[in-house]
């Protein structure tokens, strides 16, 4: 199970299906509630119309046994008086609930004396009500805000008047042995001679139940089918979208197994995120291939450079062991120093490649230039005080490498200049030699590259000095470039950001 839902395809399919399922359930619930409310309201409207029709007949003095509303099919009707006594009901009504009275058989006919007593009681009540209304109006005149003559009890009705609204309830009724749910409407009417009566009329809810049941059945069948379609489409679309990713994964696995960095992952002919991923992966592979190839060349060149002084030193030691009088002590010391310097250069390059950050101390380039130039013939220093932030040892190594390179190529003179230029410190080392061809001005900064093939390795360096100088410059946030000197030789120019206190200082 964990493997099944561990893929992006499975999670996307499950997520999309769940979202659609929640949306369908919410929409279906809202639809059922709305459908039920509309149909119930429609049944209530029909029930109210039936009750209003019977009430209209009562207001027109129609006798109870002549009411047409009592003969309507599937419309249970009850007529009760103010005391809740059932006066009339539908002929086929056998049982009813939800109207306030469960009686289905009207009360027996009353005598004329009873009717006269009822009328007298009603007249007494009306007189009492009239007195109460007069008292209310008199009290209303005494109130601060005043009262309206039209204020009266909302329940009061004039003879022959029907209440404008109806109250609704739900219940059941049994007609001719069939029991169904009904929506009942209750309407009050003030008859001219019978007092206030209440008409209860019902409308069946069978249509509402049928419609809701049909809709629910359709949802129970349709929703799972729709969810299945959504899941299948999402699965197919996600699989199609992730197919290039799987191709990239397989190719990367093959590259890892074969260790062949020349291979590349397939790039889809689209412009989406997967295509950008493939292009980025290929760019990373190209950079990795270049880095590995550069590392191979570095190791090979370093081995070659180390082999020469080691072989020379071994030969001298073997000769000295056999013939002590032939020992070339100066040559052995020279080879040892050369070997030591080469090892130091390799160690510094390894530290720079590892991302070692320079120290943040302040260094005066003018003072540093004078220190490195001291003891060197043909070197002239023209410098103004300029401070930069970095490692004094590494910057000193840069300047020493530049001077060593200039001494190997200069005829008579080497000039070191230090100046400010905008927000940068500029250190230049110029010689009056043959210079560097424009096509080779970048190659000289590559590791183990020496342009003068005729020069023996004993006379020249190992080709690491300028490479180290540029790496140190870059680590200090600067640049090192080669150009033409005014005297016709080479000009190597180091640019570094000024120290914090000197940033933004105008150039001299």
Characterization of this structure:
The radius of gyration is 54 Å and the shape is rod-shaped. The chain has eight helices and 13 strands. The chain has a six-stranded antiparallel β-sheet with strand order 2-1-6-5-4-3. It has a five-stranded mixed β-sheet with strand order 8-10-11-13-12. It has three domains: 58-141 and 151-205, no CATH class; 265-356, Signal transduction histidine kinase, dimerisation/phosphotransfer (DHp) domain (Helix Hairpins), CATH 1.10.287.130; 358-502, Heat Shock Protein 90, CATH 3.30.565.10. It has 508 residues and is α+β, with helices and mostly antiparallel strands. 49% of the residues lie in helices and 18% in strands.
User: How many strands in all?
Assistant: 13
Let me know the average pLDDT.
82
CATH architecture descriptor name of the largest domain: 2-Layer Sandwich
H/E topology pattern: HEEEHEEEHHHEHEEHEEHEE
Computed over alpha carbons, the radius of gyration is: 54 Å
Beta fraction: 15-25%
The proportion of residues forming helix, as a percent range, comes to 40-55%
CATH superfamily of the largest domain: Histidine kinase-like ATPase, C-terminal domain
Q: CA-to-CA gap between the ends?
A: 74 Å
Topology-level CATH name of the largest domain = Heat Shock Protein 90
Q: What strand order characterises the main sheet?
A: 2-1-6-5-4-3
Shape descriptor reads rod-shaped
| CATH top level assignment of the largest domain | Alpha Beta
Low-pLDDT sequence parts: 139-154, 453-458, 501-508
| Main sheet makeup | 6 strands, antiparallel
In total, the number of domains comes to: 3
């Amino acid at each position: 199970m964990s493997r099944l839902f561990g893929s992006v395809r499975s999670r996307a399919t499950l997520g999309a299906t769940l979202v659609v399922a929640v949306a369908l359930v919410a929409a279906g619930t809202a639809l059922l509630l709305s459908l039920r409310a509309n149909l119930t309201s429609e049944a209530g409207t029909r029930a109210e119309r039936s009750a209003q029709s019977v009430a209209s007949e009562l207001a027109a003095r129609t006798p109870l046994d002549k009411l047409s509303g009592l003969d309507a099919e599937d419309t249970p009707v009850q007529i009760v008086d103010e005391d809740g006594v059932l006066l009339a009901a539908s002929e086929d009504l056998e049982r009813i609930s939800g109207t306030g009275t469960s009686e289905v058989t009207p009360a027996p006919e009353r005598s004329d004396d009873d009717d006269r007593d009822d009328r007298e009681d009603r007249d007494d009540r009306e007189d009492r009500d009239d007195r109460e209304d007069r008292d209310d109006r008199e009290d209303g005149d005494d109130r601060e805000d005043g009262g309206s003559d039209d204020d009266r009890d909302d329940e009061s009705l004039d003879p022959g008047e029907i209440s404008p609204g109806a109250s609704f309830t739900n219940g059941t009724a049994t007609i001719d042995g069939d029991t169904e749910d009904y929506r009942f409407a209750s309407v009050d009417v003030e008859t001219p001679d019978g007092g206030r009566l209440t008409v209860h009329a019902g409308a069946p809810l069978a249509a509402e139940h049928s419609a809701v049941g049909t809709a629910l059945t359709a949802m129970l069948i349709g929703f799972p089918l729709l969810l299945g379609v959504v899941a299948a489409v999402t699965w197919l679309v996600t699989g199609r979208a992730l197919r290039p990713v799987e191709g990239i994964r397989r190719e990367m696995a093959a590259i890892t197994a074969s260790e062949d960095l020349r291979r590349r992952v397939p790039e889809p002919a689209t412009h989406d995120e997967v295509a950008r991923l493939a292009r980025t992966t290929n760019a990373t592979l190209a950079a990795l291939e270049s880095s590995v190839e550069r590392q191979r060349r570095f190791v090979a060149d370093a081995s070659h450079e180390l082999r020469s002084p080691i072989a020379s030193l071994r030969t001298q030691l073997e000769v000295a062991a056999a013939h002590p009088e032939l020992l070339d002590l100066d040559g052995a010391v020279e080879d040892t120093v050369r070997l030591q310097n080469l090892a130091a250069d390799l160690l510094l390059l390894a530290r720079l490649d590892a991302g070692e950050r320079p120290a943040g101390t302040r260094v005066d380039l003018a003072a540093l230039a004078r220190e490195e130039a001291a003891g060197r013939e043909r070197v002239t220093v023209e410098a103004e005080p300029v401070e930069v932030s970095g490692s004094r040892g590494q910057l000193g190594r840069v300047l020493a490498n530049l001077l060593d390179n200039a001494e190997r190529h200069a005829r008579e003179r080497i000039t070191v200049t230090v100046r400010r230029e905008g927000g940068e410190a500029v250190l230049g080392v110029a010689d009056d030699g043959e210079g560097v061809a424009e096509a080779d001005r970048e190659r000289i900064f590559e590791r183990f590259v020496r342009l003068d093939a005729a020069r023996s390795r004993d006379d020249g360096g190992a080709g690491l000095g300028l490479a180290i100088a540029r790496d140190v410059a870059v680590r200090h946030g600067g640049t090192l470039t080669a150009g033409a000197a005014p005297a016709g030789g080479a000009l190597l120019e180091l640019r570094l950001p000024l120290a914090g206190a000197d940033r933004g200082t105008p150039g001299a």
